[in-house]
Amino acid sequence: MKKTIRDFNLENKKVIIRVDFNVPMKDGIISDDTRIIGALPTIRYALEKNAKVILMSHLGRIKTEEDKKNNTLRPVSLKLSELLGKEVIFVPETRGKLLEEVVSKLNPGEIILMENTRYEDLNGKLESSNDEALGKYWASLGDIFINDAFGTSHRAHASNVGIASYIPSGIGFLIEKELLSFDKVLYHPDRPFTVILGGAKVSDKIGVIENLIEKVDYIIIGGAMAYTFLKAENLPIGHSIFDTENYEFAKKMLNQYKDKIILPVDHIVKDKDEKIMSKRVEDTAEEDIGFDIGNETIQKFKDILKISKTVLWNGPVGMFEDENFAKGTFELMKFLEKEGDTVILGGGDTASAASKFHMSFTHISTGGGASLELLEGKILPGVDCINEKI
Question: Any idea which residues carry the catalytic annotation?
Answer without folding.
Answer: 35, 201, 348, 369
